[in-house]
């Protein structure tokens, strides 16, 4: 059992398994989710439901936030009755959602204004790595805050890295998710090209996964391609958001625009709440 009292806002696909792991290693965790019914699973596993975001921040030493995007994170931190609306000096706030480096810096300033500390810590890895404590946590902020949060990061992932000041962790996250977008688009195009020329989908996936081009992500997504069923582990709309943020952050490489356009068009066709690998359905 840890002495560190944790608050957690956001119990979506990622928040749920991450909080479960914190509970398993003995952290007392208080949780808040906008749709309160979604707290049920972790409350049954031992978490406490917060009276409000404001009260959760007042009552705990460290508060982590795992919500959809920049606007959601800003609302959770700085909205009326948000995390920073009460007396929070000396507390440490950690945003683990994927947002732009600029939003991270805004959140850091908002925390500092209230005498609180801030880290950004977006994670690389989806639901399965979250369940298996195999996430990679990309931290931006001060070394002393990173050291304070390290026991929490150790309970959530296999590796945490302090990559620089606030902004650097988000930049690293946008870079790795750009690679994810390129990989998934490439996998979908490869399989569809092979199939159009008489190769079975199953055979092409075996050729990819048994060879040098196979990777953790191609192996993880292959069963979904075979079944053509894409329930969200990582919703396509979130990757579209990350590719947009990478563009806004200045990526101008040859593939950056077509890859973003492809995922954006898939989202506009109604595939945003499906898994990222639904890019295959869109291209098909
Ligand atoms: P998700 O399943 O869509 O859950 C989103 C969460 O954000 C829900 O708890 C939702 O609350 C909350 N939320 C959204 N808008 C809000 C608002 N305005 N105010 C308060 N709460 C709000 O998303 P996820 O897959 O867990 O992803 C969360 C973050 O992690 C995203 O930034 C994503 O890019 C990143 N990420 C995801 C993965 C992955 O594989 N899924 C991997 C790495 C990083 P409600 O329940 O009330 O809607």
UniProtKB/TrEMBL annotation:
It comes from the Bacteria. Coiled coil: none annotated. The active site is at 173. Residues 5-161 form the 6-phosphogluconate dehydrogenase NADP-binding domain. GO terms for molecular function: NAD binding; NADP binding; oxidoreductase activity. Keywords: NAD, Oxidoreductase. Residues 167-282 form the 3-hydroxyisobutyrate dehydrogenase-like NAD-binding domain. PANTHER family: CYTOKINE-LIKE NUCLEAR FACTOR N-PAC (PTHR43580:SF2), OXIDOREDUCTASE GLYR1-RELATED (PTHR43580). This is NAD(P)-dependent oxidoreductase.
């Amino acid at each position: 059992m840890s002495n560190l009292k944790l608050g957690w806002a956001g119990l979506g696909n990622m928040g749920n398994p991450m909080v479960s792991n914190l509970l398993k290693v003995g952290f007392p965790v208080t949780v808040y989710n906008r749709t309160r019914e979604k707290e049920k699973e972790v409350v049954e596993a031992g978490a406490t439901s917060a009276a409000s975001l404001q009260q959760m921040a007042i009552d705990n030493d460290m508060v982590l936030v795992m919500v959809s995007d920049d606007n959601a994170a800003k609302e959770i931190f700085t909205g009326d009755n948000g995390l920073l609306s009460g007396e929070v000096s000396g507390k440490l706030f950690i945003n683990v959602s994927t947002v732009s480096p600029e939003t991270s810096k805004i959140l850091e300033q908002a925390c500092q204004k209230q005498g609180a500390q801030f880290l950004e810590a977006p994670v690389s890895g989806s639901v399965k790595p979250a369940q298996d404590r195999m996430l990679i946590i990309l931290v931006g902020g001060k070394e002393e805050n990173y050291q304070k949060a390290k026991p929490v990061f150790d309970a959530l992932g296999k590796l945490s890295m302090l990559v620089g000041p606030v902004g650097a962790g988000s930049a690293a996250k946008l870079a790795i998710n750009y690679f994810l977008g390129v990989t998934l688009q490439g996998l979908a195009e490869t399989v569809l090209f092979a199939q159009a020329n008489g190769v079975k989908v199953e055979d092409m996936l075996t050729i990819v996964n048994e060879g040098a081009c196979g990777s953790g992500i191609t192996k993880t997504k292959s069963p979904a391609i075979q079944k053509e069923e894409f329930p969200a582990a990582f919703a396509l709309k979130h990757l579209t958001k990350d590719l947009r943020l990478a563009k806004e952050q200045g990526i101008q490489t040859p593939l950056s625009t077509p890859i973003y356009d492809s995922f954006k068009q898939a989202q506009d066709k109604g595939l945003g709440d499906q898994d990222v690998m639904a890019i295959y359905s869109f291209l098909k």
